[in-house]
Amino acid sequence: MTTFDADGITLERVRENVWEITRDDGMRVPARVLASEALLEEISDDKTIQQLKNTAHLPGIQKQALCMPDGHQGYGFPVGGVAALDAEEGCISPGGVGYDINCGVRMMTTNLTYDDVDGREEELVDALFANIPSGLGGGGVVESGIDTVEAILDRGMEWALEEGYAVPADLDHCEDEGVRTDSDPSAVSQKAKDRGKNQIGSLGSGNHFLEVQRVTDVFRGDVADAYGLAEEQIVVLIHTGSRGLGHQVCTDYLRRIEQEHGDMLAELPDKELAAAPAGSELAEEYYGAMCAAINFAWVNRQLIMHRTMEVFERVFDRSHEEMEMELLYDVAHNIAKKEEHTVEGEDRELYVHRKGATRAFPAGHPEVPAAYRDVGQPVIIPGSMGAGSFVLRGGEHSMAETFGSTAHGAGRVMSRTQAKNEFWGGDVQDGLRDQDRIYVKAQSGATVAEEAPGVYKDVDEVVRVSDELGIGDKVARTFPVCNIKG
């Protein structure tokens, strides 16, 4: 097959797993989808391809608008979208980051094996659910005043270290060492701070979760060794973001962009792409506020990890040091950052928007933590709660092909409304427990139905495409043991 038609748009095959929409009126660059034919079929009837094409209209966009293998319809940008916009002559788009700023994942390793957990899954899932705040609204590991929120917005993981919730190695194993120094807490509204003050250390709802997993497969032994991973080992995966604070930051700045930069908005094919021109006061304020929300999300995940250690200590009656509970890596997948990339032989500073996409820097890149620089940055790809997840490493072609990016998960094939019509939460829980020995606990059956395994793409196929393109290489696979959700 040399062409593929989706929603009235023709994609031309560039090479295996790479499809391109040729520039037409208004598009400043071509648009590319990185996917197999099977993955393309799953997005052919929704707005994913149209949203990607729309993204190519943004001022200052470089090379191509990109959609990763897990792409699906989103808000403005498709989820799985990557766009690099010139930081001097382009723009920055809140829709290219999303409402859940720095939604991301972290993986914690242990020296426990599956034999240590086998038969105690129900005890463990009950203890985690009782002690890790989840669901809509307030409730967190730390409930405090605005002064604490502002300190977190300003210093990120450095605050967690100072307060005893982190150790230095946690910062070493976090994207950007857990601190965006460009943050500006004064650019975050009082309403956003009020929403965040009682949510520090909480999962929230939707697709956010904490999952205890076992490593089932190792594909690259040398890299797995560097990451501290081995077969049958127990690991913990945490997926959440900046909660109500980040949502409010996005809402605030979308409204201001509509009011202050309506001229740019009028030139774009979709108002959800609302963007502030690079160099404008509003662009600088949004960037500072977004970086502050990024810091909040890193601390949020750190506090959940801290509480998880305490739960494991009680359940297994030994210290977290004895269990060697350590952070492997924390990486964002809803973010826009100033990064330097080579475009047409010239190094340029770009706002790299990753909307449901993961940074995937290769071995040798100076921003990869020193512990992993020889093998490449860890990339964590959650699957569904019935299909397992993957650990990848940044691939050698990622910088040239995707501005150092790859997929962020399995990607949805079904809306939440459709999922609740198709699945019954109790049946999903019973099936996972009885057939696969996966114990799931959630605030409501509706949440389980919305996140049923059948709602997601085949994560194996997503990862296969990433691996074959050399943007994210398979290192290890994990499988769920127990899972808590909002």
UniProtKB/TrEMBL annotation:
InterPro entries (alphabetical): RtcB, RtcB-like_sf
Binding locations of GMP: 207-211, 333-334, 382-385, 389, 408-411, 485
Region (Disordered), start-end ranges: 175-200
Keyword Ligase found: yes
Record EC number: 6.5.1.-
Molecular function in Gene Ontology: GTP binding; metal ion binding; RNA ligase (GTP) activity
UniProt-annotated binding residues for Mn(2+) 2: 239, 333
Record keywords, A-Z: GTP-binding, Ligase, Manganese, Metal-binding, Nucleotide-binding
Needed co-factor(s): Mn(2+)
GO process annotations (BP): tRNA splicing, via endonucleolytic cleavage and ligation
Pfam family, one: RtcB
SUPFAM superfamilies (alphabetical): Hypothetical protein PH1602
Keyword Manganese: yes
Function: Essential for tRNA splicing and maturation. Acts by directly joining spliced tRNA halves to mature-sized tRNAs. Joins RNA with 2',3'-cyclic-phosphate or 3'-phosphate ends to RNA with 5'-hydroxy ends.
Subunit structure comment from the entry: Monomer.
PANTHER family tied to this protein: RNA-SPLICING LIGASE RTCB HOMOLOG
UniProt record similarity statement: Belongs to the RtcB family.
The name this protein goes by in its record: tRNA-splicing ligase RtcB
Organism the protein comes from: Halalkalicoccus tibetensis
Taxonomic lineage from the root: Archaea, Methanobacteriati, Methanobacteriota, Stenosarchaea group, Halobacteria
